[in-house]
């Protein structure tokens, strides 16, 4: 088994395990039924824009940006290096992420020859902290849009909730103090990049594979959690 395939298998296994944390009554669909336009238009390349940070953590954008390119490349798509994209956009006088998100999509095809653009929104990156309880919630919303038709081809949301609380090591004041110390240490030492990877695994599992992947056009029947809002 080659290295890329091994990494992909790890991604899939992780996604399946994480899917087990979904609500008991989760509904399921298939990649083909949920994202038919990905199979119809068959994009080969994805231009990944910097994420829009809508969370309360000012550093969330920097944490997440380090995790985003590799998963999409491993799924079989050509991804444009973020440094190159940033430099070309600056040459065009575009420095702000919000301006990038409002640009006409055909401009990205003109500048880069990109088939699609990936937009990501960090909806939550919140650390709720109390003396004996701490919880990190990361929620990422991602969508792929065609630069040729302006159609949304794929959209999915990944959410991770991590318990950083310290375990009560005994009764009385000593136990409370020990639990508070562990909670504080866990919160301070939390590996935010790894948790961002976890959110990405939930997202990436739903993405139809691209042309540089051995499962290209063969994964229409793969089941995913249906995120269509209930009526």
The low-pLDDT segments are 5-24, 168-190
Q: Which sequence of SSEs, written as H and E, runs from N to C? A: HEHHEEHHEHHHEEEHHE
Which shape, going by the Cα principal axes? globular
Helix content: 25-40%
- Largest sheet data: 6 strands, mixed
CATH superfamily of the domain at 3-21 and 35-125 and 138-157 and 193-210: ABC-type transport auxiliary lipoprotein component
Oligomer: single chain
C-alpha Rg (nearest Å): 20 Å
Ends distance: 44 Å
Discrete helix count: 10
CATH architecture of the domain at 3-21 and 35-125 and 138-157 and 193-210: 3-Layer(aba) Sandwich
Query: How many β-strands, per DSSP?
Result: 8
What is the fold named in CATH at topology level of the domain at 3-21 and 35-125 and 138-157 and 193-210? Rossmann fold
Strand content: 15-25%
The CATH class assignment of the domain at 3-21 and 35-125 and 138-157 and 193-210 is Alpha Beta
Class by alpha and beta content: alpha/beta
Query: Please, what is the average pLDDT?
Result: 79
Descriptive overview:
By secondary structure, this protein is an alpha/beta fold. The chain has a domain at 3-21 and 35-125 and 138-157 and 193-210: ABC-type transport auxiliary lipoprotein component (Rossmann fold, 3-Layer(aba) Sandwich), CATH 3.40.50.10610. 40% of the residues lie in helices and 23% in strands. The protein contains ten helices and eight strands. The protein has helices spanning 3-19, 31-34, 36-41, 60-65, 69-74, 82-91, 97-101, 105-112, 172-188, 192-204; strands at 28-30, 45-48, 52-53, 78-79, 116-129, 134-146, 152-163, 223-225. The strands form two sheets. Strands 2, 3, 4, 5, 6 and 7 form a six-stranded mixed sheet that branches. It has a two-stranded antiparallel sheet with strand order 1-8. A hairpin with a 5-residue loop joins strand 6 (134-146) and strand 7. Helix 1 crosses helix 10.
